[in-house]
Design brief:
- The protein is α/β, with parallel strands linked by helices.
- Helices cover about 50% and strands about 10% of the residues.
- The chain has 18 helices and 9 strands.
- Helix 4 runs parallel beside helix 8 and helix 8 packs across helix 11.
- The protein is globular.
- The two termini are about 30 Å apart.
């Protein structure tokens, strides 16, 4: 594929071009730390309304774009958004996350799941993504947002977020055949959903396997990695030129395994030094991250020093500057603004 200078900065980095500075965006950059978001939340108290009513989701997705001009604008959504399309009823409770009305615990429930038909069950996604692309043009890259099989299964089986994951681990370690069927169905549905997002305008897609870091490495190899691979392989079959990003929270122990997932870019959290992450993943794997979100509570000088440190360690190829996880709700907006200003004025020659 010919590389175009008119392509947005993040997309060029994700494809492997050497650039004068790393592109920058933030996970959860649309959200609670912004007054504009909190004001809108009062008008639309339901998260599902905020993420599924197109004009509201478009507005929220664009709030950080208008404020900070990041190199990436991500669809405002949740990983459980496609579940109702499979026949799994859910809601998203404010401050608590997804709630699954009837957790999946039996073969019969898994047999009843429907294949995902995004055009029918998620029509708002097309409206939102097309509007984002139109709004940012080539000034920024529009990112899609999907959950990974293990993490979706953790929500579907537990019924909600968990500290111990004891229900799904009980299933994994005592009746794995049922769980593997669920993971396979989720993988196929997520691949369909990711392809749909790309067809609707997403230029890069990030797969959130938020809870795969709760698995031991040997269990990650059985219950997370093969299904990440299944998603990425299917997406690559039809959309080989769309860069794919993998995030796992608390991923220090499985970093090398993430590099084998088929993702083009591995998100590194702050529990690993970026220089170590580069060495462990090898020269071929691109990286995203990895400032501790808590750094944004520091002084401007401290924030700048940490940005420079990360960029220096990541080197001049295949790095998207980001936090290692989402922006924390009480982060001062002016510090987020300073983070973006500093990142966008970077010159790699001056830093390295």
């Amino acid at each position: 594929m010919g590389l175009s200078l008119s392509a947005p900065h993040l997309l060029r980095a994700a494809r492997g071009e050497v650039l004068d500075r790393p592109p920058v965006w933030m996970m959860r950059q649309a959200g609670r730390y912004m007054k504009a978001y909190r004001d809108l939340r009062e008008k639309y108290p339901s998260f599902r309304d905020r993420s599924e009513i197109p004009e509201v989701a478009i507005e929220i997705s664009l709030q950080p774009w208008r404020a900070f001009q990041p190199d990436g604008v991500i669809l405002f959504s949740d990983i459980v958004t496609p579940l109702p399309g499979l026949g799994i009823e859910m809601d998203i409770a404010e401050g608590k996350g997804p709630i699954i009305q009837s957790p999946l615990r039996s073969q019969a429930q898994i047999d009843q799941l429907r294949p995902l038909e995004p055009e029918a069950s998620l029509p708002f996604i097309k409206t939102i993504l097309q509007a984002l692309r139109q709004e940012v043009g080539n000034q920024s890259t529009v990112l899609g947002f999907v959950g990974a099989p293990w993490t979706l299964a953790a929500y579907a089986v537990e019924g909600k977020g968990s500290k111990t994951y004891s229900v799904i681990k009980n299933m994994a370690f005592s009746d794995p055949t049922v769980l593997h069927q669920l993971l396979a169905k989720f993988a196929d549905a997520i691949a369909i959903y990711a392809r749909y997002q790309i067809d609707c305008g997403a230029q890069v897609v990030q797969l959130f396997d938020s809870w795969a870091g709760q698995l031991s490495p040997q269990d990650y190899d059985v219950f997370a990695l093969p299904y990440q691979q299944r998603v990425f392989e299917q997406v690559k079959q039809t959309h080989p030129d769309t860069p794919l990003i993998l995030l796992v929270s608390g991923s220090a122990g499985v970093l090398e395994r993430m590099g084998k997932s088929g993702a083009d870019i591995v998100t590194v959290d702050w529990s690993v030094d970026m220089a170590d992450a580069r060495a462990r993943l090898g020269k071929e794997v691109k990286v995203q991250g990895n400032l501790d979100p808590g750094v944004l509570f520091g002084s401007k000088e401290f924030i700048r020093d940490r940005i420079y440190d990360t960029v220096r360690k990541a080197g001049n190829w295949g790095h998207i500057l980001n936090l290692g996880h989402g922006v924390l709700p009480t982060t001062p907006e002016e510090n987020v603004a300073f983070f973006f200003e500093t990142a966008k004025q970077l010159s790699l020659t001056a830093v390295t």
